[in-house]
Write a structure and sequence with these properties.
- The protein has helices at about 10-15, 20-30, 45-60, 75-85, 95-105, 155-175, 190-205, 230-245, 260-270, 285-290, 310-315, 320-325, 330-345, 390-410, and strands at about 1-10, 35-40, 60-65, 90, 120, 125, 135-140, 145-150, 180-185, 210-215, 220-225, 250-255, 275-280, 300-305, 350-355, 370-375, 380-385.
- It is α/β, with parallel strands linked by helices.
- It folds into three domains: about 1-175, MoaB/Mog-like domain (Molybdenum Cofactor Biosythetic Enzyme, Chain A, 3-Layer(aba) Sandwich), CATH 3.40.980; about 180-255, 2-Layer Sandwich (Alpha-Beta Plaits), CATH 3.30.70; about 260-410, CinA-like (Maf protein), CATH 3.90.950.20.
- The strands form four sheets. The chain has a six-stranded mixed β-sheet, sandwiched between helices. A five-stranded mixed β-sheet has the order 14-13-15-16-17, sandwiched between helices.
- Helix 2 (about 20-30) runs parallel beside helix 6, helix 3 crosses helix 4 (about 75-85) and helix 9 (about 260-270) packs parallel to helix 14 (about 390-410).
Length: about 425
């Protein structure tokens, strides 16, 4: 089975809301062996929604939508689905009673326009929504192609997808087997280099499938295998995973739901060590990443955001002579900041960032994007010089990931 995904809402086209539903739906479909051939967004216009649905049905077996099932005048997905399929809407009594019960439970008066949510395409399979008032539906055309629609509110859409839509899609697609996925998280290696190292595996491996997903300063390698059972799928995937791990040795920091800060804290706890940070150009982002991990207080001592040179001197112990001779953005200052954070905050490891995030402040000798990152412990220090591309936010984000990457690499046995 192949489907297309359609997100409905003018706010998506205006950039007022980021569509997180479509990627979530796409991942869920892929993990259940259903191919996604396209993802689209359309505004709150009945004719355009219906046209997008018809076009998707011309190319695929079905279209999965999110959004536009509410009670207001601009919620038009049901009406557009009826137009696309050539059917009339009808009142679904059980859905109306569920909506009335939801309002009674909240002690609120139900308005007449809420009845609209219970009018669904004639003959549609109704997807109950105990988390809201808008039921979903699956409406099938005479040739078997379908439109499956869910609410746009993520906390309503996600359980409906998991509990009702995916079981129907699996049964319809005949995917009685199992799909097993594995994500390998890499750092300090470019997408093009990964592609170079595993290109032959891409060409020779249809099952499991391999995909490389690039992020800021890191990449994921995703593997997906299909087989009659979960165990068989894992067995099919294992040798390919082992070969990729061999080819990417030294760059894979974690798997699946593991995060880079989480892996760092796990390593710190294993070695009974603590970390402190000193940040200039990243403005506290490194500390924010490290403290995003539950239980991080066991290994994170604290941090200092030292933008002004006086803070570097007074709180971190950077020597005024170092700042005068080498400047705030330098190898020497980065090392002294990391050492100062470690000693002043009583940690075993110190990490620092100093750089020029822009858009102003750069010179030919020290351009915008120049970043120094240092890690120190009782045995000495490691420092890297980077020239990062992007605007201010991009440079700060990349510098944050690069700092965590150096820390991770330094902590390896």
């Amino acid at each position: 089975m192949k489907v297309e995904i359609l997100a409905v809402g003018t706010e998506l086209l205006l950039g007022q809301l980021v569509d997180t539903n479509s990627p979530h739906i796409a991942r869920a479909l892929a993990e259940n062996g259903i191919d996604v051939y396209g993802m689209h967004a359309v505004g709150d216009n009945r004719e355009r929604i219906a046209a997008a649905m018809r076009a998707a049905l011309d190319r695929a077996d079905g279209v999965v939508t999110s959004g536009g099932l509410g009670p207001t005048i601009d919620d038009l997905t049901k009406e557009a689905a009826c137009d696309a399929l050539g059917v009339e809407p009808e009142l679904h009594d059980a859905s109306l009673r569920a909506i009335e019960h939801a309002f009674a439970r909240l002690g609120r008066a139900m308005q007449e326009n809420n009845r609209k949510q219970a009018h669904l395409p004639r003959g549609a399979r109704v997807l109950p929504n105990p988390h809201g008032t808008a039921p979903g539906f699956i409406a099938t055309r005479e040739d078997g192609k379908f439109i499956a629609s869910m609410p746009g509110v993520p906390r309503e859409m996600k359980p409906m997808l998991q509990e009702h839509m995916l079981p129907w899609l699996r049964e319809r697609a005949g995917t009685s087997g199992a799909v097993y996925t594995r994500v390998l998280h890499t750092i300090d290696i470019a997408e093009s280099e990964i592609d170079h190292r595993i290109a032959d595996l891409f060409a020779s491996s249809a099952n499991p499938k391999i995909a490389v997903l690039a992020h800021d300063y890191r990449c994921d390698v995703k593997l997906m295998a299909k087989a009659a059972s979960a165990e068989a799928a894992r067995d099919l995937l294992a040798p390919v995973e082992d070969e990729i791990l061999r080819r990417l040795r030294g760059h894979v920091y974690g798997f699946d739901e593991q995060s880079l800060p989480g892996v760092i804290h796990e390593r710190l706890r294993q070695t009974n060590r603590t970390i402190a940070v000193a940040e200039s150009c990243t403005g506290g982002a490194v500390a924010s990443e490290l403290t995003s991990v539950p239980g991080s207080s066991k290994s994170f001592m604290g941090g200092v955001v030292a933008y002004d040179n006086s803070v570097k001197v007074e709180l971190l112990g950077v020597q005024p002579s170092t700042l005068e001779a080498a400047g705030a953005v330098s190898e020497e200052t980065a090392l002294e900041m990391a050492r100062g954070a470690r000693l002043r905050l009583g940690a075993d490891v110190g990490l620092s960032t100093t750089g020029i995030a822009g858009p102003d402040g750069g010179t030919p000798e020290k351009p915008v994007g120049l970043v120094w990152i240092a890690v120190t412990d009782e045995s000495g220090g490691h420092v890297v010089r980077l020239h990062l591309p992007g605007d201010r936010a991009g440079i700060q984000r990349r510098a944050t990931i690069a700092a965590l990457a150096l820390l991770w690499r330094t902590l390896q046995p």
